[in-house]
Every structure is written in C-alpha cells, then in structure tokens.
Amino acid sequence: MKIYPYKRLNRPITFRVTSVSLKLADGTRDQLDTSAYSTQQQAVALGVAGHDDWVSATIGLSATLPPGADAPDAAWSDVRVLAVLVDGETNVRTTTDLTRDAEDSRDWSGFLELLRDDHLGRASLIIYAAGTVDGVAGRSIAETDRSWIVDTVSDEPVSGLQLEVRKASFTKSSREWLRAYADVPWIVDTSARVPTVFVNTDVEGIVGLLDSSGSGVESKVRDLLVAQMATDVWTAVFHGAIGDLEIEPGGNPVFPTDWQGEVLREMLPDVVPGVHVEEALRQVHRRRTGDSGWAELQTRIHYAAIRRAEASRALGYAIRSLEQANRESEK
Fold first, then answer.
1. Which of 99, 101, 304, 322 lies 20 to 30 A from 234 at CA?
2. What is the DSSP string of 214-278?
3. DSSP 270
4. 313: Cβ–Cβ under 8 A, 6 or more apart, which residues?
5. How many other C-beta atoms are found inside a 10 Å radius of the C-beta of residue 318?
6. pLDDT tens digits, residue range 82-93?
7. CB-based contact 158:45 (threshold 8 Å)
8. Are 171 and 202 in contact (CB under 8 A)?
9. CB distance 10 to 22 below 8 Å
10. pTM of the model
11. What are residue 307's phi and psi, to 5 degrees?
C-alpha cells in the first residue's frame, strides 16, 4: 500500500465501459455490441467483430468518484478525472480527460481513443482523479482499485491469464530451439506475447490422451496430466514475470500492466500472504535480488502454482477412480 504525504480519498473510483466502436480503414465506423466488453471480467475484446482492417478504437467510459470528492471542505481543488491506457509491451501510454456529467455530480464520462498500431495485445485501463492539494497541482487523490484489460486481438473479453497451447514435434519443428527439449512432454515459452505451452507430439499417446473426451480412469489420468501441466505453467509464468520487472529510480519494482501483472496479482497473495500485493512484490523482488531468502521462497511459489492448477482435486479424483476400478475388478 502506497503512503501519500497529503490527504486523499479513502475509497476507489468505480467505472465501467459504456460503448466500443472501431474505425475501419475505409473511414467507416463499426459500433460493436455489448459482447465486446464485460463488466464482470472488466475486459474489452476488440477482435470480437472479426475486422482485420480497423485503424483505431473508441471506448466510451463512465466513472463515479467516491463520496467526499466534492465536499465543501475537501483538501483538494481543480479536480480532473483522467482515463489512462498503458501498454507494457509497446510502452505506449494514452491519456484522455473525462467530463463531469453535471455541476454537482460525482459522475464523469468521456471517450478514449487508441490507435491499433500502438498495441500488440493487451493493455491496462485505469481511471485517476487528480487535483491541487496543499498548493501542488496534479496530485493523485483517488484511482480505481483494479484496471480493465483492453485486448486488441482477442474475440472474447476475458481479464484472466490466457495461455496459448500448440502441439509440435520437438524433433522436427521449424522452431529449432524446441529440439533441445525433445525428451520432455511439454515446455512453456514465457517470452511470447502470451505464454505458450508447446506439447511434444513425439511423446507417444500424449495428444490422444489430452484430446480424449471419455470418462472413467482415462479421463482422471488426463485431468491429472493437465493439472501437472498447469502447475508447470503457473511456476514458469511467475518466474517469467518476476524476472522481467521494470525498476523505479528508487529501486522499487513497477507492477507490470500486461499478463505478467495478472500472474503476479493472482499468485502473490499465496507467495507472500497477509500483505498488499504491491508490498508482496517489493518483498519478492528484494529476496530475488538480495543475498538471502530467494531459495526459501520457492516452496511458496510452488504452493501457489499447485493451488491455481487445482492439482489436489485432480489427484483426489484420480485416486478415487482407481480405488473404484480396483474394487470392481475384485468382484
């Protein structure tokens, strides 16, 4: 939790997306329906309409400041509300001012326009309220507690971690780097735009098992295999995220805004329990770059990965299925 040397609002800003439209290459505009954004997921998917030639997108926004924002005795003045879109991959930041809906209203609204060429995938959208406090202009007095995800590629508004799964012969793949891992059933690539799991089709039976839709013991073995794969993925993406942090001049890590940030927000509460995720990130970074503590943290990282993979549940199902099969065979 950040400490500010001046008064701020104690509660976060709430906001929602109200509309999404695309400007196409021929100058026309396509107003997307509500399937392009999800309030529950807090995500926007600009690929939902299947356009390959869109140039820019316009996102309608409505924000509500918390109570006290317009109090007569407030410590701030000259309040502005801004929507900020940050793409950690391209390092592009787009900012637009929202407009107060009425003179005595806490509701603000407006439109944010983003250019397609500025983005490769997922960007983070957050709302800030800023004002003059103690004579200093532009101080942040409140923000949203969770950002929205704007995905310029996806056709489904999903905020959580997305993985790409590809099947390939590791010995024959055109990706020569895979050949070094020819003796393993899968490998995780965290250097791509989204984490990618490569399944080694050279391992006999693995593709058939993963694609099987049957029931019984086979399905439980498949679920167990998927849980083990998911554990490996969560562990790999956590290390990928924590190893690629941007550092502020003061030495503190900056929370990533792409999939890496999603991974960290998901896993840090189990890696360093009982503290805010930003403080947890600072502690993990200190242990990773310091002289001690990193090795001890591996158990917590493994624990967090197993929990998200739901490995315990898959193992329980597999054990019960085997026990039942054994009982039936003894009859």
1. 322
2. --SHHHHHHHHHHHHHHHHHHHHHHHHHHTT-EE-TTSPEEPPSSHHHHHHHHHHHHHSTTS-HH
3. H
4. 227
5. 19
6. 999 998 778 899
7. yes
8. yes
9. no
10. 0.61
11. -60, -45
